[in-house]
Design goal:
alpha+beta; single chain; 4-stranded antiparallel beta sheet
Length: about 400
């Protein structure tokens, strides 16, 4: 649906239709959206048609009767901006249609309805410094399960052993939870950039604080998510998993057949967090997040080596955790050129619990899906080299995303 433009009737033209014609037209639009999305067609019921007729005619939120709707549909409608463009009607109708996710899977989800009007600033990050040992883009520092899950993820690499361990009650942080870490680091990188500018001007600015106090809405908007009730609930659970998830890195040294332990360091994905305030509906509102030392020192008090890279904002729209891992790996390893990884090595670095046969099918599906929804910045291709399949990751433009649309990410 994201690549197909519907030529919708104006409000005046819609008003001239009879009741039967309006219903037929809205059903036709719904069918077009379902076809473009690869879903089965579904018949809109009388209540859905009634709401959509009123909304289409006047673009008034009151006509949607949100107080009577309830459920996720009401939450999605609440995220509509007051000034709604005519082409957003197709998105609105799309939310009335049940989605058959088994028909066709893509790598990305649609952007939120009010995505074009998001009120956040994605910082421009230049030459951001970083720490030497925290190469977290070479592995998945989160669970590929959408619900986190229990257990420990262990990566045995050539020069390090990395262990990811979650809390006994909440489990390991997910790929979607990690969006909050990206938001936190982007905020800190931008604050540090401004601090350096003021310092260079001879001013006496305050060093960026180690406590980040965003609103829940700011985080959700930054991560390009809807502003519904479920998203606020998920955000609170995500903070608990992030605080409970610890990464332990043991650096190794030694030659062939000999690996000596060098040093071990353990750190959380985020430090202490606190829900500062809640809304009248008891939703999480203002939060306070302590930025852990490994992030803060790497950005604010650098040792001269870069430790953050930039991401394409469309990273947040990737709906599969495995696709997110592959993009992160491509961004780190391929950069502006290309990189190659065997499926055996990919499985090892992803932390996936799938057996090789199913993992191979999952990667093949992602590569095939890029023909419909390309991965941000990179083209993917599988090459059969006899002993193993090789995933080829090539930068599509041979250039990084423009700084103004970049997102800071730790490596």
């Amino acid at each position: 649906m994201a690549t197909k433009k519907l030529h919708l009737k104006t409000r005046e033209a819609f008003a001239e239709l009879s009741l039967h014609e309006k219903n037929a037209y809205l059903q036709e639009v719904a069918d077009q959206i379902a076809d473009a999305r690869g879903d089965d067609r579904a018949v809109l019921d009388k209540d859905a048609l009634s709401r959509l007729r009123r909304y289409y005619s006047r673009r008034s939120m009151a006509d949607l009767r949100l107080e009577d709707m309830g459920g996720p549909l009401a939450a999605r409608f609440k995220s509509l901006a007051e000034a709604i463009r005519s082409d957003e009607v197709q998105k609105l109708v799309g939310h009335e249609i049940p989605t058959n996710r088994q028909t066709r899977r893509t790598n990305s989800r649609p952007a939120p309805m009010d995505d074009a009007q998001l009120m956040f600033f994605v910082p421009s990050v230049h030459d951001a410094p970083l720490k030497d040992d925290f190469n977290l883009m070479d592995i998945a520092p989160f669970s590929l399960s959408k619900n986190g899950g229990q257990g420990v993820i262990r990566y045995e690499l050539k020069d390090a052993v990395i262990t990811i361990e979650g809390g006994a009650e909440v489990g390991i942080a997910t790929a979607y939870d990690y969006d909050i870490v990206i938001n936190m680091i982007s905020h800190l990188a931008e604050a540090t950039r401004r601090f350096r500018i003021d310092e260079a001007k001879g001013l006496k600015p305050s060093i960026p604080p180690q406590v980040y106090r965003p609103s829940a809405a700011e985080i959700l908007k930054f991560c390009r998510r809807e502003l519904g009730g479920k998203q606020y609930e998920d955000l609170e659970r995500a903070l608990a998993r992030l605080q409970a998830t610890h990464i332990r890195i043991t650096n190794l040294k030694g030659g062939e057949g000999r690996r000596d332990r060098r040093e071990t360091e353990s750190f959380p994905l985020i430090g202490r967090y606190k829900v500062v305030s809640r809304t009248s509906q008891d939703r999480i509102d203002q939060v306070e997040i302590e930025i852990p030392g490994w992030v803060y020192d790497g950005v604010v008090q650098p040792d001269g080596k870069p430790t953050i890279l930039t991401l394409n904002p469309d990273y947040f729209l990737l709906s599969r955790p495995l696709a997110r891992f592959i993009y992160r790996l491509a961004r780190k390893a391929a950069g502006e050129s290309e990189a190659y990884y065997s499926l055996k090595e990919l499985l090892k670095r992803s932390g996936s619990k799938l057996p090789m046969r199913k993992f191979r099918l999952a990667v093949e599906e992602i590569v095939e899906s890029t023909k419909l929804t390309p991965l941000p910045d990179y083209d993917l291709e599988l090459e059969d080299r006899g002993h193993d399949l090789i995933l080829v990751m090539r930068n599509r433009t041979r250039a990084l995303p423009p700084p103004a649309t970049a997102i800071a990410l730790p490596i």
